[in-house]
Amino acid sequence: MAIQFTSHEIKDNLKEKRKLKAFLADLFKAEGQGLKSLHYVFCSDTYLLEINKQFLQHDTYTDIVTFEMGEDSSITEGEIYISVDRVVDNAEKFKVPVNQELHRVIFHGALHLCGFKDKSKADAALMRSKEDEYLQKYF
């Protein structure tokens, strides 16, 4: 199992990467999802907008795009792209520390790969509850 963090054209300022990797591995275990590999890419709005257009045909800014790359749905091989620009803007909007919002988005992507959705109101409420649960456990 390998978890990687990469920055593309920006500085991520992510602290305690070793601790976060172990926590993410535990999150997958707790959710009953296998984990083979997970790659987080921290990037700009512009870069993530291009990914959103190219792969999802969405012409909108977003804070995260998550891809399952593996063929076995029970074992994650994922890539998660996070716009640090959106995270900073959302932290200001929701009046929370940037570090907290960054970790919320990191956990959000992992939860998507564990099978959680957020398109309906009920699914979004469950997703938010799980994010809060993991934020409390982490911090």
Automatic annotation (TrEMBL):
Positions annotated to bind Zn(2+): H108, H112, D118
The record ties this protein, via InterPro entries, to: MetalPrtase_cat_dom_sf_prd, YbeY
- Pfam families to which the protein is assigned, alphabetical: YbeY
Cite a GO CC annotation. Answer: cytoplasm
Q: Which cofactors?
A: Zn(2+)
Keywords attached to this entry: Cytoplasm, Endonuclease, Hydrolase, Metal-binding, Nuclease, Ribosome biogenesis, rRNA processing, Zinc
A Gene Ontology biological process noted in the UniProt record is:
rRNA processing
Q: Name one GO molecular function term.
A: RNA endonuclease activity
Which residues, if any, are the signal sequence?
Answer: none
Cofactor binding, note field:
Binds 1 zinc ion.
Transmembrane: present as a keyword of the record?
no
Give its localization.
Cytoplasm
Q: Tell me which NCBIfam families the record gives.
A: rRNA maturation RNase YbeY (TIGR00043)
Summarize the protein's role: Single strand-specific metallo-endoribonuclease involved in late-stage 70S ribosome quality control and in maturation of the 3' terminus of the 16S rRNA.
Would you identify the family this protein belongs to, as annotated?
Belongs to the endoribonuclease YbeY family.
Name of protein: Endoribonuclease YbeY
Q: Which organism is it from?
A: Chitinophaga niastensis
